[in-house]
Design goal:
Helix content: 25-40%
Strand content: 25-35%
Low-confidence stretches: 1-5
Strand order of the largest sheet: 2-8-7-4-6-5
Shape: globular
Largest sheet: 6 strands, mixed
Structural class: alpha+beta
Order of helices and strands: EEHHEEHHEEHEE
Distance between the termini: 37 Å
Number of domains: 1
């Protein structure tokens, strides 16, 4: 099922309090702005997909987006977005049957990243927290 517009109601489940204190995805309007921008630029989103968000400053500290993350995605699903306090984030939308498998591998390379299952239905955008990576093993990058 495809959704042509995102809703005005956001539900985030399973997000631990210690993650919510630094999570960008939970900021008012952040998730809606990303999803609406995708749909303006590329058309409808599937009703279910996976999303990863990572501060751009962390990617810059790595020397850029790791090559394996580039291999697992394409430029259309990698969106630059700013928080309300003007901090840039990379948001990756993962579509398809292997989305969760790719998310798991991608997040191993992205410090301070957060991953969610996204479900667009009945006027509500539901984000189910999957995992947050605070620090990465230096051997990975």
């Amino acid at each position: 099922m495809l959704m042509t517009t995102t809703s005005s109601r956001l539900e985030i489940t399973g997000l631990p309090p210690y993650i919510s204190c630094w999570s960008a995805v939970g900021l008012p309007g952040f998730a809606f702005a990303i999803l609406n921008r995708w749909q303006r630029n590329y058309g409808t989103l599937p009703s279910r997909f996976v999303m990863v968000a990572c501060p751009q400053v962390e990617i810059n500290a790595l020397g850029g987006l790791p090559s394996r993350v580039i291999e697992l995605t394409d430029s259309r699903v990698r969106l630059q977005h700013f928080t309300g306090c003007h901090r840039p984030y990379l948001v990756i939308l993962l579509l398809g049957d292997d989305a969760e498998q790719r998310r798991e591998e991608i997040q191993k390379f992205l410090p301070w990243s957060e991953g969610y299952d996204v479900n667009l239905m009945n006027g509500t955008t539901q984000l189910e927290f999957i995992e947050a990576i605070e620090d990465i093993d230096c051997a990975v990058g």
